Amino acid sequence: MEESYLLVLLTLDATLRVATPLILAAMAGLFAERSGVIDIGLEGKMLAAAFAAAATAAATGSAWAGLAVAILVSVALALLHGFACITHRGNQVVSGVAINVIASGLTVVLGIAWFHQGGRTPTLDAEFRFTEHALPFAEAARSIPVLGTIYAEVISGHNFLVYLALAMVPLTWWVVYRTRFGLRLRAVGENPAAVDTAGISVTGLRYSAMAIAGLLCGIAGAYLSTAHSAAFVRDMTAGKGYMALAAMIFGKWKPVPALFACLLFGFLDALAVRLQGVEIPVIGVFPVQLIQALPYILTVVLLAGFIGKAVAPKASGTPYVKERT
Amino acid sequence: MSQPVKLPPWIDIGVIPALNILAALLVSALVILAVGEDPVKALEVMLYGAFGYDEAIGYTLYYTTNFIFTGLAVAIAFHAGLFNIGGEGQAYIGGLGVGLLVLALDGWLPWYALLPLAIVAAALFGGAWAAVPGWLQAYRGSHIVITTIMFNFIASALMVHLMVNVLIKPGQMSPESREFAESAWLPMARQIAGAFGFDISRSPLNLSFLIALVAAVLVTIFIWRTRWGYAIRTVGRNETAAIYAGIDPKKTVFWTMALSGALAGMVGINEIMGVQHKLLLNFTAGYGFTGIAVSLMGRNHPIGIVLASLLFGALYQGGAELDFEFEQITRDMVVVIQGLIILFSGALAYMFNPMVARLVGRLAAAKG
Fold it and tell me: Is A312 on the interface with B (CB under 8 A)?
């Protein structure tokens, strides 16, 4: 009993680690889509940021420098996406796909040229990474049954970026629902013409939303290569950007539901790892792939309106053209 | 794009795409310079690697075959205003259909009897995999882009499950099916040429290339010469007008997606029946995504798609040579070039229009 309880706690602990980049990227997608720009390129921005963070940390010996460069690179890609879809009114999906493909290739090309390890970056020593922090009283709390162990095992002992990601959710909620910028952001995603009529720049708002998306993806990428693991490996995002997109949709374009979707998807992922090859009574070896596919299946089912209704921001996906008379 | 700059057609389908590709290649050249190699030499190596000798040409055309299929798949959906980003998954499942069929019948039937059945299997499996997102879009209002992305991941998970747990050859570690009987393999280009008395080098190029060319011709006729093609184009241009014309947009969306998936599924003919001769993981190798670039570059027209496929075939094959010739660049460079082509000929397709329009206007004015 004691042992299975600990196993549950460890799985929840892993859930939080896996969900962190999803949370950051999902909030990024939320800002972009609320402004009316579809962002398929979350994956590419995260991947490029992961490479930038690991490469910079390896070169400078500072995880913080890595984080800064990761954010710079990711914001640059986000602005490129903006340049294509806002300024040139290009197809947003095509632009997102392009960013993903470019990031997937360029990280490997530069990685091989700079580090000669087949696209990997050198493994970072602990002091060049974001490492775990025990929260205050974590050890003392261990002796308290249930709550204490949850505190010590699940809540405490993560790196700084995990807590940052969790803090981003209420912050996103506050920005989107309680600030003037957020009001305008929501309006521009629903009816850009109205925002334009009010004398507010649609282009400016959408570019700012993209910059925020870039910032968040940059942190997510840095987390992957300098906190969660200790190096960049090729295609290390492995579809996390798309999963974050799915989580954002699953969360119906709202911050808190999106957080829970990320946690659910992260939990499924952590569970899949634990169930790998485990014999379960009656069922036998559980098809782990089914659990891995579950986030995507759930998202499809939700989008089809079989479980509640997910309504995207109305203007999402359509470039805005100022009327000229 | 509300006020697209009007340009003469030869500029629109000739000069603008050329400028877009040039921009993509220019940025690629900068990347090659940045890693400390010579872009001109890289271009030479790639050209030689793609067309320099007959084995290379065989490989180039083998890649081209896959791109024609996935490019046509993306294009046909585009004509109906649908963005099928799920070519990868549809090709994967199409290959599964081909593999299951050949595994079941390869001892009984020779390749020429299997081929028509395999084409049907690829079309049915790939088509069904795309028809579900099509149905969801048409009747449940879910977004085709998102659902097809999700279906790519579901296809990938399904294949891993089947290969690891069900179809794996007993007593083997790597997740592959048994090899097909040799009588079920599609004839290679070398064998076909040999039958006519020519001797060419061994390469994966096989009969599927001709099937791809036939598919391109059929798609051309279908889109521009049939009632169905008309319905698809009408729905793509203006759904309201389509309804007035008595076309059911929902049905059209569903069947267009099925057809699109069927075309993507044909990759299975080339890869599974033509080259790999067994079912295995990841044989689609990104061909579905490249189809997006191919279709964008080919302006959704089969002739353009065949030409763009040839360019991408050359990129893939020529890119493989980069590994041998350069210390600093590998075939991953091809992925970068591919991404840049998607960026410039897709997302930034109209960037050069105003500039070219101004130039054309000035030239016209100078002529008086």
Answer: yes
